[in-house]
Inverse folding.
């Protein structure tokens, strides 16, 4: 297979399709507030742990259940819960202190998420959005983060609440991320995105998870690309002012390389007869997070399939200007591929 050269450019290429006009959502009404669970949690009086835990239940009746069961993975027995809480507050106290220095002001993050929610409401007026953000500190190995959140964002949803794990947004240079045990859980190509600037994108991706059930099971590679492209198209619509590098998770150099080599990338999939493959081991090379796409060279991004799918979806939407986002979601990936006539 011939590799594509992803040159590191010194200029920012605009490319990546023509941006649609951004709608005015200033009058869209969205209710959103933030509670800082981690501040109340680490302020507990551990000499009166049972009383302190009950006070947290009173203030956070829904999130406290999630925190104990899904994040701390505590045994439901009271003695086990109290022991777990004591051990966790002691072990993660320094992480909590560091988080308060990093997130001295959470208003900018809340405002960015709220603005994204306005766009969600604009495009999907009947969709029920969360009304509360709850920040917290959780353990590095929380199983819900390792299993449900492939990118380890630490963001979870429960009805009207979005829980945001600050421990996974401390900045890519946070010393703990360099520890060997943590890198075994979150390699550098994942932890490079553990930054405050990715929180809104991660939060809106959780909304997209709820809004749209991607249909990938048993689908060939090109259709799985388009399903991922639908998600990126939605994310772009919800966060139109957020850099594409944040939304894709690529570095700016990787994104520039994709834009410059769009035709070559498409030709690679065609000449190697990859578009209609169904083998999971092959599909994985192009549809999962990774340091790069080996067949395309070290400078290429991993999960390059979402970039290709995004371009196909944009082409289809440009040809169907009267189609809504809901129409896009309800159109099969097969039909989008066949009618887009994508050819960069």
């Amino acid at each position: 297979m011939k590799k594509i050269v992803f040159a590191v450019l010194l200029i920012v290429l605009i490319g990546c399709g023509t941006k649609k006009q951004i709608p005015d959502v200033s009058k869209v009404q969205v209710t959103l507030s933030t509670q800082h669970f981690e501040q109340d949690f680490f302020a507990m009086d551990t000499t009166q742990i049972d009383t302190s835990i009950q006070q947290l239940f009173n203030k956070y009746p829904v999130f406290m259940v999630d925190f104990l069961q899904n994040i701390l993975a505590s045994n439901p027995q009271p003695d086990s819960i109290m022991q777990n809480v004591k051990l966790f507050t002691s072990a993660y106290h320094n992480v909590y202190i560091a988080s308060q220095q990093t997130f001295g002001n959470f208003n900018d993050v809340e405002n960015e998420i709220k603005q994204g929610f306005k766009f969600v409401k604009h495009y999907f007026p009947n969709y029920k959005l969360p009304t509360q953000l709850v920040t917290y500190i959780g353990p590095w190995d929380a199983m819900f983060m390792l299993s449900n959140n492939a990118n380890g964002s630490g963001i979870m949803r429960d009805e009207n609440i979005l829980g945001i794990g600050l421990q996974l947004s401390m900045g890519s240079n946070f010393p703990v991320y360099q520890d060997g045990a943590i890198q075994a859980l979150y390699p550098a190509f994942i932890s490079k995105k553990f930054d405050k600037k990715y929180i809104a994108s991660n939060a809106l991706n959780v909304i997209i998870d709820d809004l749209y059930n991607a249909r990938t099971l048993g689908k060939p590679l090109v259709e799985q690309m388009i399903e991922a492209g639908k998600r990126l198209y939605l994310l772009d619509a919800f966060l139109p002012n957020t850099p594409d590098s944040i939304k894709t998770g690529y570095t700016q150099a990787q994104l520039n390389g994709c834009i410059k080599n769009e035709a070559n990338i498409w030709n690679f999939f065609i000449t190697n007869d990859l578009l209609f493959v169904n083998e999971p081991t092959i599909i994985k090379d192009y549809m999962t997070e990774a340091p790069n796409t080996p067949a395309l060279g070290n400078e290429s991004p991993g999960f390059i399939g979402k970039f290709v799918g995004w371009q196909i979806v944009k082409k289809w939407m440009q040809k169907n200007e009267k189609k809504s986002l809901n129409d896009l979601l309800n159109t099969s990936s097969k039909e989008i591929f066949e009618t887009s006539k994508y050819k960069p």
Notes: Strands lie at 33-36, 132-136, 155-158, 161-165.
